[in-house]
Amino acid sequence: MRVAKSLAFAALAATVVTTRAHAAESPVDVDTCRDLGFDAETLDCRRCDELSTFLSTSASTSDGDDSAAASKARDALQADCAKCCQDLSAKGLHAIGGTAGDKYARVVLEVCTCKFGRYPKIANFVHQHAQKHAQLEIKACNYMYYINARHPFLIFYDVEGTKQEEVGIASWDEDTISEFIEAKVAPPEEAATPAPTTTEDEEKKVASDDAEQSEEEVADATDNDEL
């Protein structure tokens, strides 16, 4: 079974490379990619490589045999990623998120509750697993406001609060989502936002406010003594 999986992953990698080559020759449909959970304007193809490596590793270390449905879902996800990505370095552009393997400060899972029936594993993750991740925020929309809500996806942010990466997770199971978050998000102690610095003017204002408060306290004490 391990050998079969290795061959399957090798075939998958070849498929991704071939798909990417064809995608490079045709224009990217930004709207379609966004519906799939990919930002085509900033998605570097190296992110697809990273995602492929993660999903392959996750599947090879999971218990039990890999189901045909799960393999098909991974194949489709990789194909979608390859169709939506660009070789930004070759175009002289910069991908958001720094280098592959970077750790982010926090992550937001955006999902429409109206789609929980369609994505039971996503719903179960939100209800049973999300609380295990301190740096995860669930942003659930309601169908009344988002009639055309897209598929569930993860958005990663740096310590400054700037969006760095987003990935569609419609076909993922609970364990894969948890493992991906753990792999991409830094522990709370490492992702802590730096304390804001106090400028000289702010320090003077604080000192002035403290002095005024002290004067008021002295005046109140004097009035009480006279009474």
Automatic annotation (TrEMBL):
The protein's name in its UniProt record: Selenoprotein F
Domain of life according to the entry: Eukaryota
Alphabetically ordered keywords of this record: Endoplasmic reticulum, Selenocysteine, Signal
Signal peptide span: 1-23
GO cellular component terms attached to this protein's record: endoplasmic reticulum lumen
InterPro entries for this protein: Sep15/SelM_sf (IPR038219), Sep15_SelM (IPR039992), Sep15_SelM_dom (IPR014912), Thioredoxin-like_sf (IPR036249)
Keyword ATP-binding: no
Main location: endoplasmic reticulum
Segments of skewed composition (Acidic residues): 209-227
Stated family: Belongs to the selenoprotein M/F family.
